[in-house]
Every structure is written in C-alpha cells, then in structure tokens.
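Same chain as my last thread, 388 residues:
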Amino acid sequence: MAVAVIICNPAEAERLTHWALLFALAEMEPELILIFEQAALEGIEVCLEKWQEREVELPEIKRLQCDGALTADWALVQVDRCSPELLLVDKNRSESPQRDGRADKIACEVFDGACCDTMALRIGPHLPNECDSILVPTAGGPHARSALKVANRLAHCWQGALTALFIQSGMTAQDGEEVGKRILQRNLREADIDPGDEQHVQLQVVNSDQFNQVIAHLAEEGKHDLLIIGASNSSFLRRRLFGTVPNRLLDSDDPLAVAVMRSGRSLTHRLRNRVEQFCRLRVPQLAREERIALFERLHTQSRWSFDFMVLILLSTAIAALGLIQNSTAVVIGAMLVAPLMTPLLGAGLALVQGNFPLMRTCFRSILFGFVAAVGVGAVAGLLAPITE
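reply #2:
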C-alpha cells in the first residue's frame, strides 16, 4: 500500500517527510512516494538520514521530482499515475512565519482534485518519534470512516491507541452516553474496526453542543500526537479545513498535529473528471476576447427591440404563407428569419452564470415574441383564402 506526499514548501520538507514516513510504515506493504520540487530535496535527505540513524527499516521510496516550480496540475497527474492509497498535503499554520501562499494554493487544489483518500496535515511544532495516540471525532459518513481506518492502522503499527470521539447534544447525560457509544460502535464496524479491541480502540462520548471547544479541550488534555477530523459532506469539510477549527488549536505551540481527511472520490466522480479533462485538452477553448464578444452579442440581441419585433412579424408571416401554400421550403425559410434563437441562447447563458437580469431580458423577449407570433398567425388564418 503506497502513501504519497506532495512537498512544495521547502521550509516544511523535513517535517512533512517525517510524518509521511510515520503513515507509510503503518501500511502492510509500505511504499512512500515523494512528489517534490528541487528546492525541497535537501530537507528530504536530512529527514531520511535521521531515520536511518534510528536503525528503522525504511519503506520502499519512490521519488518524483519536478524540474521547475511544482504546480497542482503536475502533482495531480503524478498522483493519478501512482494511484496511492493515501495522499498527504501540507496545511500551513495561518500565522506561520514560514507561510508559503503558493504552497497553500497548491495544497487546496490538490486536496479538492485528488481521487484517492487525501489528508491535509497541519504539522505541530514538535515531531513525535511514534504516532501512538490519535483522536478522531466522528459522526459517520465516508470521510469519518477513512479517518478511522488511517488512525487504526497507525495505532496498531506504533502499539498505541485510537480514541474515537462522539459529541452528543440535546440529550440527558446517561442516555446521551449510551446512544453515543452505540453510534461509535456502528461507525467503527463500518470502518472494519473491532469496537471490542480495548488495547488499541477507546470510545469517548461527550454531551455538549460546543463542537470546536470540546475537541480543543480534549486534544490539549489528552496529549494526543494527532487529531484527524473526518466529515460527512464537502461543505462541512471545507469549513473544518479553511477556518473554523479553533484558532488556539491551529496556531498554538501545542505539539498536537491536526489533519483533515477526505475519502477517495467515487467511480462516477472520477469518470466525470476524466471527461472534463479530455474536453479541456481536446476541445478548442474560446479566447478571452472571443468570450467577451460572444457575451456582448447575446446581451444585445436578446433584448426586445424594433428590429426584433419586425423579424418576428416577418418570420411569422412567411411561415403562415408557407402553411397556406403547403410549402416546406417556405416554412424552413421562416425559421431562418426568426430571431428567437438568440434569446434562447441568452437564457441558457443566464442560467449557467446565474445572471438574473439577463434571464429576465431573455424571457421577456421570448414571451413578447410568442405573443406576436400567435397574433400574426391568427390574423393570417382569418385572412387566408381557405375554403375547406
């Protein structure tokens, strides 16, 4: 089982490699894939030398070095080729003196785009030699299951303990604890973890409606090496990753490392990404000036105006003449004159953009055009020399 890590911030290369080794050694057939740029090579080598001095048997290491500056697209291509079980990206502290805005941007894009299980890791100021105490708040869902699986492997590898936490609110203390334990046991079984493994698995239920405060307090009180937060949906996950985990937990000098876990993408999602990528590469894209000209033309020609009204009246009259003469060619000619296609295209653009003013303009033109066409058709029917 391979663990991949993307290192685009040279200042964090040594520490991130250290954590990647902790995760890689927890796998049955350990393999570590290092995806990095040239500037991070020195930190990686320093970390590997320190591990060799500890006389620890290192996993098989595969190095993928970017010749220039590492980009998210290049990193995602390498991840797709290697297909690791777990991918690590670095989540900097919000006020770190070594903060790298480019690295943050790459980490966010990779976190959203990778198909495998992905973990955004905020490294603590201290590096543990072993990761033997992991706290995992869980309420169910695919992300929480992935977090539990990773934490369980770490606990077994380093002979430590996984603490599964459930925060219950709106119930009495006794009932809430019993309900919470049952939910935790069910979540552990869904993650293929034995809830009765008391040596490596501990269950903890807290009655509170202050989610962030409880996690922060338990993390500091329990002296855990790692906190892994899993979530059941993307919006929750984004909130946890980009700003609502307590500031004192993210920015303090406490040795706790914090990680956000996202489960691998589904087959449907991966197929859709493949199709989108193929279209971006193969289908010619409009240049900026061409897009502006297209939008301007749709905005202008979708309005109800004198020209629009005249074209509608003429096209309806031609269509009526074609029906009276039983001429298919004349009816088709009327379709070519009709201007309704432009506001229909404009309405499609408005729906894609969420452009409500343009949508109102297009629907107004379509409605007036329909009424005008029906009116002209009725008059033509009354005046037509049809006897049968």
